[in-house]
UniProtKB/TrEMBL annotation:
Keywords: Membrane, Transmembrane, Transmembrane helix. The chain crosses the membrane at residues 42-62, 74-92, 115-137, 149-167, 179-195. The lineage of its organism: Bacteria, Bacillati, Bacillota, Bacilli, Bacillales. It comes from Jeotgalibacillus malaysiensis. The keyword Transmembrane helix applies. This is DUF2834 domain-containing protein. The keyword Transmembrane applies.
Length: 198
């Protein structure tokens, strides 16, 4: 029930409440024109991280895809829809195990490999290098108020962060380093990296 409530609130925020200019979205214009240098570094880092989060969910959910609904369509849809795509699966699809693992073995070998996890960590930390150009909370705040894209993606980011922590605790309750999951994006990957039960 909580996932549906959050999903509905997120939809309501995106449609009715998100601040932003009434005309064209300034940040979205820069993204579509490829003029990324004109985007605030913190805004760009958060934007890029929304493409990394789905890789983390793809890794966690496909390693544990035994639930009522297959996880892979929702994990793939998260690349375009973020939490909008994942919340319905957590609400309705994440039911007690009903079948053997759906994920093909060759994909499992990749997702369970240390090489894949290291790739995710390098990708995550590489994204943070954008912040070396400077971090301006006032600049981000200004973009948040002027761009509906930034305002919605910020809320989406925090929900994805919470969902990633929930997913780690849901599927790896016996992991000794679950507290690492609270580190945004990299944390769940580190939990899997140090998890040896499999």
């Amino acid at each position: 029930m909580k996932f549906i409530v959050i999903w509905l609130l997120l939809l309501a925020y995106a449609v009715f409440l998100a601040p932003g200019s009434e005309g064209s979205d300034p940040v979205m214009e820069q993204v579509f024109s490829g003029n990324l240098d004109a985007i605030d570094p913190l805004v760009l880092t958060v934007f890029n991280s929304l493409g990394i989060f789905p890789l983390v969910f793809l890794t966690i959910l496909l390693r544990n895809d035994r639930q009522k609904w297959p996880a892979w369509p929702f994990s793939l849809a998260a690349f375009a829809g973020g939490a909008f795509a994942l919340l319905p699966w957590f609400a309705f699809g994440d039911r007690p195990k009903e079948r053997v693992l759906r994920t093909p073995r060759w994909i499992l070998r990749i997702l369970r490999s240390k090489v894949w996890l290291i790739f995710l960590l390098v990708f995550t930390f590489g994204n943070l290098l954008t912040l070396l150009q400077g971090v301006s909370l006032s600049g981000y705040s200004e973009a948040f108020m002027e761009s509906s894209l930034v305002s919605v993606m910020t809320v989406d980011w925090f929900i994805l962060w919470w969902l990633s922590v929930y997913a780690v605790h849901r599927f790896y309750p016996d992991a000794k380093r679950k507290g690492l999951a609270w580190i945004p994006i990299a944390g769940p990957v580190l939990v899997l990296f140090f998890y040896h039960k499999e």
